[in-house]
Design a protein that fits this description.
Layout lengths: L12 H4 L4 E2 L1 H7 L2 H11 L7 H17 L2 E8 L7 E6 L1 E3 L5 E3 L3 H5 E2 L11 H4 L4 E5 L5 E6 L2 E12 L9 H20 L7 E15 H4 L3 H6 L24 H16 L4 E6 L5 E6 L2 E2 H21 L2 E4 L13 E9 L12 H20 L1 H7 L21 E2 L2 H12 L34 E3 L4 E3 L9 H23 L4 H16 L11 H10 L7 H5 L5 H9 L5 H55 L6 H33 L3 H27 L12 H6 L2
Parallel strand pairs: 2-9, 16-17
Antiparallel strand pairs: 1-8, 2-3, 4-5, 6-7, 7-9, 8-9, 10-12, 10-13, 10-14, 10-15, 11-12, 15-18, 17-18
Helix pairs in contact: 7-15, 10-11, 12-15, 12-16, 13-15, 14-16, 15-16, 20-21, 20-22, 21-22
The protein binds adenosine-5'-diphosphate and magnesium ion.
Magnesium ion binds next to loops.
C-alpha cells in the first residue's frame, strides 16, 4: 500500500514544495488573468472583492482541493484562546434526484458563521450582539491539511462580531499592519521615494522540547498543564553544554524529516533546525514573510510539531518552562519593515540618502520601544513565561535594546556632530556624509538582550513559545507606527527634510538612549542600572496585563484604529481569566499528585523500611538498623511537610476562587496560590530523592530529559 505520509520518497523537494498551498502560482495558473490581477489588488488593499470574483476563486479553489482528495472545507480562525479554531463543512450538495454534487460558493468562501458563543469574548458579544462571523483573509493563502481523517481545505479568516468588534487575534494584526503601512509611506514620501506599500515582515524561531510519549502519559502534570509541577534535578542537567548544536539523534532526525516534509507541502519554508541549549530541546525557523502570514504559519508550525511528534510516539512540549532548573522555551520574533519595491527599511544603506532613511526608521523603533516598553512586555506575558521573564533566567523582564557598539557610536557621533567612527573623515551629518561601514554581522553575541538589532532586523526575544505571535506583533507594529506618525508630522512641515531628519535622529537618541544597553542583560548590575534609568521591570503577567488598559495604551490603540477601549478591556479580562484558570489547573493537579501519588508511594516505602527493620531484628537480634530508622524518620517528616503544604495550598485555592473581582482573583492566584505551589513542590522533590526509584509513581527528569 502506498504510504500516504511519505510521498517525499523519490520526489525532488521543489515538486513537493507548496503542493498543499493555494498560493500565488496556483492562482496564476488556475484563474483568468483579470481575476488574478484583481485578487492581487485586493491583497494589497487597493480594491474590495466583488461577488463575481469570489465566485470564480471559490470554484477554482474547490476544483484544486477536490483534485487533491478534499471532501470538506473550513474557515480557520484565531480566537482569543491563542489557539486556532475550525468548523468543517463538506462540499456536498444534494440534487433533486437523490445524488450529490460538490459545491463551494463565493459566499461560503468569503463569509462563515461559526456558532461561536463559547469562545471567550470578554463580554463583547453579550454587550453588543450575540453572533460573530468569519471573513476570508485574502492576504494569507488557503491550504490543505491531510491526515488520517482525510483532506480538508482551510481558509484563513478573521473573526468579527456583527457590530464590527474584533473577536480574534487576526483583526488587530491586520489593522496594525495597515497602520504601519500608512505611517511608513508618509515618511518615504517626504523623502522622495515612491514605494506604494510597506509591510511588516516577521520570521519567528520556535523552540520546543520532545519527550517520549510513554513517559508523558504517566505524568498528570504534563498531560493537564504542559509542565512538570514536581521533579528533582537529576545528577546531570545542561551544565555540560553538550546539547546545543550537537548531533541530532536519529529518532529526532527522523521526526524532523517528516516535519519538514509536511511543512514544505504546506508551502512553509522551514529552513533551519538544531538542538537547543537544554537536553531534548530543539528549534525550527522558517524564512521570514509578511507579518500576518508568518503568524498563521507559526500556528501551523506549532500544530504540525505536535501532530508529527505523535506519529513518532513523541510528545512536543511547547510550554515556556516545562522543567524547573532547565532552560525554558521562547520564540525569537525577527521583525522588520520592507517596501513593495524590495527595500528592507532597517538595512543600513550604502549612500547618505539611504542611510538617512535607515536612521529615521531605526530611530522610530528606539523611540517606540522606550515609550511603550510596558506594552511590549505585556505582549509577551503569559503564565508560562512568568517562569522565564523576571525569574532567574533569560531574557529578563526589563525591556532594553541592543544596538551594538558600532551603531551606537554612529548615533553618539551624530548627536555630538562629531567625526565618524575612529577613522578620519567628515563630520557626520545625516543625508550628507557617509556613515562608517557597519560590520555585516552585528549580532548580539551574548544573546541576552530582549530586543536586539541584528544587522537588518530586530529580534524580540521575550515572546512566549506556546502562544500565537500575533499580540507581540500587533504591539510592535502599532508603537512603531505611532513613532513614525510623530516623525511624519515634523517632516511634512519641514522646508529642509534632511536637516529635520538630522534633528529627529539627535533628539530621539538624546531622549531615548536610556533604553539602549549593549552589555549582559542577565547580570544583577543591569537590574540596578535599569532601575536607575527608570526602565520598567514588570515581573508578572498580572502586573503586565494592566499595561493594556492604561490611558496611554487606550489612546494609542484608538488613534491608529487597532483596538477600541471596549475591545482592549474585553481582552484584558480574557487574559487575566486565562491566567487564573491556568494556575487553578496547576494547583489542582499538584494537590492530586501530592495526595494521591507521592504520599502513598512515600508511605509504602516507609512501611517497607519498617517491615525490614522488624524482620532484620527478628533475624539478627542486635543488628544495627539505625540507618533504616533514620531514613524512616526523614521520610515521615517530609510526608508531613507535603501534607501540610498541600492542605495550605487547597485552602489558598479555595480563597482565591471565591474572589469576585477579576483583578483580585488573578492577584490571589499569583501572590498566594502560586507561592504555595512552590513550597509544596520542595517536599515532593525531597521525597523523590529518598524513596526507592523503582517505587516512584511517575517518570523522573532523567527519563524525561535524557531518554529518547
Ligand atoms: P539567527 O542567527 O538568530 O538564527 P537568522 O539570520 O538565521 O538568525 O534569522 C532568523 C530569522 O530571521 C529567520 O526566520 C529569518 O528568515 C528571519 N529574518 C531575516 N531577515 C528578516 C527580515 N528582514 N524581517 C524579518 N525576519 C527576517
Ligand atoms: Mg535568533
Amino acid at each position: 500500500m502506498e504510504n500516504k505520509y511519505n510521498y517525499f520518497n523519490n520526489k525532488p523537494i521543489p515538486e513537493i514544495y507548496g503542493v498543499n498551498c493555494f498560493n500565488d502560482s496556483v492562482m496564476k495558473e488556475r484563474l483568468p488573468k483579470s481575476i488574478y490581477k484583481e485578487i492581487q489588488n485586493v491583497k494589497r488593499g487597493d480594491l474590495e472583492m466583488t461577488h463575481e470574483t469570489a465566485e470564480v476563486v471559490a470554484n477554482a479553489m474547490k476544483d484544486w482541493a477536490i483534485e487533491r482528495g478534499a471532501t470538506h472545507f473550513t474557515h480557520w480562525f484565531q480566537p482569543l484562546t491563542g489557539l486556532t479554531a475550525e468548523k468543517h463543512d463538506s462540499f456536498i450538495s444534494p440534487t433533486d434526484d437523490g445524488r450529490v454534487i460538490m459545491e463551494f460558493s463565493g459566499k461560503e468562501l468569503i463569509k462563515g458563521e461559526p456558532d461561536a458563543s463559547s469562545f471567550p469574548s470578554g463580554g463583547i458579544r453579550a454587550t453588543f450582539e450575540a453572533r460573530g462571523y468569519t471573513v476570508w483573509d485574502v492576504s494569507s493563502p488557503a491550504f490543505l491539511k491531510e491526515d488520517k481523517t482525510g483532506v480538508t481545505l482551510y481558509i484563513p479568516t478573521a473573526f468579527i462580531s456583527y457590530t464590527g468588534e474584533a473577536l480574534d487575534k487576526k483583526v488587530p494584526l491586520l489593522r496594525s499592519m495597515e497602520a504601519i503601512n500608512k505611517q511608513a509611506l508618509r515618511i518615504l514620501k517626504v523623502m522622495g521615494r515612491n514605494s506604494k506599500r510597506v509591510t511588516a515582515t516577521v520570521g519567528p524561531e520556535q523552540e520546543y522540547f520532545l519527550i517520549d510519549e510513554e513517559y508523558f502519559n504517566k505524568r498528570p502534570d504534563l498531560i493537564l498543564s504542559g509542565r512538570t509541577l514536581f521533579g528533582a534535578m537529576p545528577p546531570k542537567g545542561q551544565e555540560m553544554e553538550d546539547h546545543y548544536f550537537g548531533t541530532i539523534k536519529e529518532r529526532v532526525a527522523d521526526f524532523m524529516r517528516e516535519l519538514n516534509l509536511e511543512l514544505w507541502k504546506l508551502g512553509i519554508s522551514a529552513k533551519t533546525q538544531h538542538n537547543e541549549v537544554a537536553p531534548n530541546q530543539f528549534e525550527i525557523a522558517p524564512i521570514f514573510s509578511m507579518c500576518s502570514v508568518a503568524t498563521d504559519t507559526n500556528q501551523l508550525v506549532m500544530e504540525t510539531l505536535r501532530k508529527i511528534a505523535g506519529r513518532h510516539k513523541l510528545v512536543c512540549l511547547l510550554h515556556e518552562k516545562p522543567f524547573a532548573g532547565v532552560n525554558g522555551s521562547g520564540k525569537h520574533n525577527n521583525w522588520s519593515m520592507s517596501t513593495d519595491d524590495g527595500i528592507n527599511l532597517l538595512e543600513p544603506g550604502s549612500n547618505p540618502q539611504e542611510n538617512a532613511s535607515f536612521l529615521v526608521f531605526i530611530s522610530a523603533v528606539i523611540k517606540a520601544v522606550d515609550t511603550y516598553a510596558g506594552l511590549l512586555r505585556m505582549s509577551a506575558a503569559n503564565a508560562g513565561n512568568d517562569h522565564r521573564l523576571g525569574a532567574n533566567e533569560a531574557p529578563p523582564a526589563i525591556i532594553s535594546i541592543f544596538l551594538g557598539d558600532p551603531l551606537q557610536e554612529i548615533f553618539e557621533n551624530i548627536s555630538r556632530g562629531e567625526k565618524g567612527g575612529n577613522k578620519e573623515g567628515d563630520f557626520i551629518k545625516v543625508g550628507q556624509t557617509s556613515l562608517p561601514k557597519l560590520p555585516r554581522d552585528l549580532t548580539d553575541r551574548n544573546r541576552t538582550s530582549p530586543f536586539a538589532f541584528t544587522g537588518n532586523k530586530f529580534e524580540f526575544r521575550m515572546v512566549p513559545s506556546s502562544d500565537t505571535i500575533s499580540g507581540p506583533n500587533v504591539v510592535l507594529n502599532t508603537v512603531v507606527a505611532e513613532a513614525l506618525c510623530q516623525f511624519a508630522e515634523i517632516l511634512e512641515k519641514s522646508n529642509n527634510v534632511i536637516d529635520s531628519i538630522n534633528k529627529i535622529v539627535i533628539d530621539t537618541y538624546n531622549t531615548h538612549k536610556r533604553i539602549i544597553f549593549n552589555g549582559n542583560n542577565y547580570s544583577e548590575e543591569w537590574v540596578a542600572e535599569a532601575a536607575k534609568r527608570g526602565l520598567p521591570n514588570i515581573k508578572t503577567t498580572v502586573d503586565a496585563l494592566q499595561e493594556m488598559v492604561k490611558e496611554s495604551a487606550v489612546e494609542l490603540f484608538a488613534k491608529h484604529k487597532i483596538l477600541s477601549k471596549v475591545e482592549l478591556e474585553s481582552r484584558f479580562h480574557i487574559y487575566l481569566e486565562k491566567y487564573s484558570k491556568q494556575i487553578n489547573i496547576e494547583a489542582g493537579t499538584m494537590i492530586e499528585m501530592a495526595n494521591l501519588l507521592i504520599f502513598p508511594a512515600a508511605n509504602r516505602f516507609a512501611r517497607e523500611l519498617a517491615d525490614s527493620v522488624n524482620s532484620i531484628k527478628a533475624a539478627v537480634k542486635d543488628a544495627d538498623t539505625s540507618v533504616q530508622e533514620g531514613l524512616i524518620r526523614e521520610i515521615l517528616s517530609n510526608i508531613k511537610g507535603l501534607k501540610t503544604k498541600s492542605d495550605e495550598l487547597a485552602a489558598e485555592l479555595k480563597k482565591a476562587k471565591s474572589l469576585e473581582d477579576i483583578v483580585q482573583h488573578a492577584k490571589a492566584f499569583r501572590e498566594k496560590v502560586f507561592v504555595k505551589m512552590a513550597e509544596l513542590r520542595v517536599y515532593g522533590d525531597i521525597l523523590e530523592k529518598l524513596v526507592d526509584k523503582k517505587a516512584w509513581p511517575f517518570p523522573t527528569y532523567e527519563e524525561l530529559l535524557f531518554k529518547l
